[in-house]
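Incident log, structure service

09:12 report received: a user says their structure output differs between two submissions of the same chain.
09:20 pulled the input from the user's history:
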Amino acid sequence: MQALLAVVGDAAGIVVVRNGRVVEATAAGGSRLRVGPAGDGDRELLGAAIEQVPDVFTILNDAFALDPVIVDVPAGVTLDGPVVVVHLTEGDGVAAFPRLVVRAGADSEVAVLEVQASAGAGPGLVVPVTEIVVGRAARVGHVTVQELGLGTWQLATQVARVDAEATLRTTSIGFGGDYARMRTDCRMVGRGASGELDAVYFGEGDQTLDFRTFQDHVAPDCTSNLLFKGAVGGRSRSVYTGMIRVGKEARGTNAFQTNRNVKLSDGAWAESVPNLVIENNDVRCSHASAVGPVDEEQRFYLESRGVPTDEAERLIVSGFFDEVLTRLPVPAVAPLLRGTIAAKFARRES
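09:34 re-ran on a clean worker, output below:
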């Protein structure tokens, strides 16, 4: 965590949560930002982004979340630095239910870095829920870095509500966990709303990384663009299931969905299932998916110029992920993420 805070630099706010309890909450002076555990007056914010309860795990989080965290940015406020929220799970056999609610007022701007981490390699269960409410013409960037221990199960939900002319860019980084599931729901509810959904994930050993996404177009003239990129080594598995929904009133929709996966070992397995449900004929929608090994032509090109095979494959995989990492809402963390990718690549056959 210290390395992360060091690269972030001057954060607008820092919240540290240990086993569901807030142990630190600070905000930069004069920023008008409010961060910290939810108080009695914040109860109306919990569930503000959720039109319909996605699944039973959200209900469990509602029941067992100890200190929901609120990040509230007033209308018209632009924050220079990111807000960092760190969820730590400590102890074997611990179940944690972190909750984060981000509300950006009209014409505000904020970037949030959320980290899920655990200490030790013992068994554990983490059921996080993140809600993002993007007010009219607001700009929100959100990065989730999941680096849980390889004995931990995660069942995560992220729900966003994007109002008229507002923009949300969210990036999910999936590195840890034994079985790690992330469900992402992005609802464009105001005319001209935009949702950009990215992800980078890398499986090793016997990990299973499971991603489920919903791009829900409710209002007209909205745009969503999804790009999920993953790699699997060892005997790890990844599953991507995506859905673009275009409602009857959502004319002028532009919605795109792309999932690409690289297999780095014979024992690894990846599955990709994109879907569309369209109820209006004035739309532009597409989906694409691919699963395959490292590109042989790219590898041969590098080898023909004297690059060793292992180094050539590492460079190709690094470039594969850079399309997402170069546009992170919190760009300062990109070097750390590249380092983790390099370490996982070195262990890809184990």
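09:41 both user submissions now match this output. Likely a transient worker issue. Closing.
09:42 reviewer note: The chain has five helices and 21 strands. The two ends are 26 Å apart (CA to CA).
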